[in-house]
Amino acid sequence: MPQSMSMVQTQRLQQTMAPQLRQSLEILQIPMMELSSLIQQEVEVNPTLEVQAPEESIPEIDKSDEPTDLTSEMDLKDEFDVLAKIDGDLQDYFFQDSIQDRTDTAMRSERQQYIMDSITSEETLHEHILFQLDLSELSEGDKIIGEMLIGSINDDGYLTINLDELALSTSYNVDHIHDVLTVIQDFHPTGVGARNINECLHLQLEQAGKHESSIEWRIIDEHFNDLGRKKFTTIADDLGVSVEQVKAAADLISRQNPKPGNIFAEDRIEYILPEVFVELDDDVYVARINDDSLPKLRISSYYRKLIQDSSTPKETIKYIKEKLASSKFLITSIEQRQSTLRKISDVIVDKQQDFFRYGIKQLKPMTMQEVATLVGVHETTVSRAVSSKYMQTPNGIFELRYFFTTGLQTSDGSSVSNESVKDMIADMIADEDTAKPLSDQVIADILNKDGINVARRTVAKYRIKLKIPSSSMRRSD
Q: Would 2 be classed as within a structural domain?
């Protein structure tokens, strides 16, 4: 059968994100201090953009001076519509994994909230390990043991409770507890759950392919102090190997992390500049956006007039038009950011009046989906808008994400924020008799008697997030 080549033209739709849309996403998401830096950088490279001095008033713009084709290739409203569409399509993509997820509204909502909260939030060590525990193939009973163990892991990644003591304070067999610990010690970061530095290094060396018969393993077991003093000849003579082999083994050991949990430690100084202020106005709390801390931008009148000058070269006019379009888009993006943040803050403050008036125990459950519906944007837009931004309230400074919490059902059919429940748990533990500390089950029973339907496992998770040790660790003689 003869073969031939031919050219066929086909049409297909494909979404691409323009650089300006990427910039608008960045402007929406970054905190004010970073945005101020970004603005300064743009002013330095874009001559058509000017920073208005604080004492200056904004001059009236003569519309007749504005080039009529300045935005002919870029309708800002259309650009933001495309941005919203991209947000929506990405969201739909994430949640079309299975038919069961689409039919189970509660499960889908929980999963959706988790993804939204994870877009920019920083994970703690305990959250990281708990997430892996939930994904493990351990039984529900073994996961309870795992939560108790994880609750006793310190910020360095070490297990701080004796397994025999844990067995005595619970109904679990010590060998069974050790089996669960073995599973946790396979989690990331390697070495987590170790009971001492030797075990931590053993776990990491095992991950690197070294085992009990290796030189590295034997050095840790038999010559750990000599290794610290760099007595390589002494180690070599005792192990019957060459000094070069000992040095190579010492180099591998030195590249391990004796504090695996530290990769989650926040070692940078974070400067907080509140973007929203909550103030009392006629006995009602209202939100005020901190516009004053952002540089005020305007488009240079000089370049606006230069573009109308017939003597200006065409290449120069083209360059100025591009810069003017970039300036207008930046100014509009900043205005869009502030407007979105204002609308979201208004919804938060309106719903959380009791929180601002009476404190954490009055924090109401609220999801990003709920706020997005009220504001009229996609929930990914809400997630980006509240990322790394803070609100100054009568009760202190809070990250905007703090106000997005799921709720627990109460006996009267209402719901209470999990942050409120955490605060109740912290208060109970602070007032407990340290000779007879409250177990997670006792705390759960107390909350249930107060009308808050909470399981022991949920109490354990909240306690871990509060960085409170288990009851056996809190006991004092």
A: no
- Backbone phi and psi for residue 459, each to the nearest 5 degrees, phi listed first: -60, -45
pLDDT in tens, 55-92: 554 444 343 444 333 333 334 444 444 444 444 443 44
Q: Which residue has the higher pLDDT, 53 or 418?
A: 418
Q: Which DSSP string do the residues of 155-182 spell out, in sequence order?
A: TTSBB-S-HHHHHHHSSS-HHHHHHHHH
Same domain membership, residue 224 and residue 134: yes
- Whether the Cβ atoms of residue 101 and residue 95 lie closer than 8 Å to each other: yes
Spatial separation of the C-alpha atoms in residues 325 and 474, rounded to whole Å: 62
What are the tens digits of pLDDT across the range 230-239?
A: 899 999 999 9
- In the three-class reduction of DSSP (H, G, I as helix; E, B as strand; rest coil), residue 398 is classed as strand
* Residue-level pLDDT at 67: 38
Question: 143 near 133, Cβ under 8 Å?
Answer: yes
Q: Is residue 228 part of a domain?
A: yes
The answer to whether 311 and 72 have CB atoms below 8 angstroms apart is no
Predicted model pTM: 0.54
- Average pLDDT, integer, range 295-318: 88
Instruction: Give residue 30's domain range.
Output: 20-60+70-119+268-359+378-397
Give the mean pLDDT of 309-338.
Answer: 90
Find the farthest-apart pair of alpha carbons in the chain and give their distance in angstroms, rounded. 93
Residue listed under structure tokens 């877009």:
119
Domain end among 235, 264, 293: 264
Q: Are residues 254 and 184 in the same domain?
A: yes
Q: Which of 163, 143, 160 is nearest to 152 (CA)?
A: 160
Q: Where would I find the H helices in 195-313?
A: 197-207, 215-222, 224-228, 232-239, 243-254, 301-306
